[in-house]
Amino acid sequence: MGQQAFFHAPHGGADFLGIRQSRSGATEIVYDDGVARRMVWRVAGKPQDGKLSDALRTAVGSLRVLPTLYDELKKRSISIERVGG
Asked: What is the pTM of this model?
């Protein structure tokens, strides 16, 4: 398994974002709001870990995690496909 990164919301929320590798070797982003929602996206291609980690760190630090995540991924030209949740 490759490098993993996990981020928790610093503002007291239960929001969680993480990067993991699937069994097939694809990079995935995991989101969990700590209550009812868990979502998983597959990252298209091989993103640079630094870019992806920065996007997740910025998103989890905001009050609106998911909209900020989509914006940050778009800024960095990282394509995703929803696979779970």
From this structure: 0.83
